[in-house]
Each structure stands twice: as C-alpha cells, then as structure tokens.
What we know:
Blueprint (H helix, E strand, L loop, with lengths): L5 H14 L4 E6 L16 E5 L6 E5 L3 E8 L2 E8 L3 E6 L5 E3 L5 H18 L18
Amino acid sequence: MMCDQKPYLVRAFYDWIVDSGCTPYLQIQINYPGVVAPEGFDDEGVLVLNISGQATNRLQLGDQSIDFEARFRGKAMAVHVPMPAVLAIFAKENAQGMGFAPPDLEQALKEAESVSASTTSASSPSDKPKRDRSHLKVVK
C-alpha cells in the first residue's frame, strides 16, 4: 500500500515556492477535528496562514500534521494542522500552488467523537481527561 501523497506534495510545493522567492501560504479547514489555530481569522471555516520562515517559528511539515508557532494580534500561539485539514498550499504573490480535495468533515467528526467516547468510558470518573493532539476543537 502506498503512503498518502499529500505530505510529500505539501513539502515539495513549500520548497518550490520558497526557492522561487515567494511567500508560502497554507489554506486549511479550521473546523476539522484536531486543528489548533487562532479564532476569528477564518472566512466560513477556511483559514489562510502565512507559513514562511519570517512568519513562523519551529515549522515542521510532517507526515501527519503541520506544526509551528506564530504571532496573532501580538500573541504567540502554537498551531497544529492535521494533514487532512490542508486544502491548499500556494504562493501569495501569484497564487501558484496546489489545491486538495476537502476532507469529509462529517466522517472526521464521527471518528473523533467515537475515539473521545471510547477514551472517556475507559477512564475512571476521578481521572482528568488527558489532552493530546487528537483533541477536538470546533471553531465557529
């Protein structure tokens, strides 16, 4: 079975955009389960982020997610974007890049709820739920 090609394409387009002297932007589905991003910057659930070296700190373009730190309205924030939430990567200057099919949000929310339910039922009432990267955060 072949690996998912999206992380490889995102990294390749990022390198191509930067090598061309342009600014890489990432378009994401902000209400996808597990996305940790600033609130109030999205347009109908879609958020565009500058992921250039000048705008981010500790950028990691991983196989499962994209993680970095950035400042929003002067406040530092860690951003976590699961790879399925990535809708596009493109250059700010000329919009050249690549778009991806939007994720199935209903299916992803059902999976996140079932994982959350199984984790909750397995823990004792005195245990505090542990937060990890699969934490569901819906931003409206």
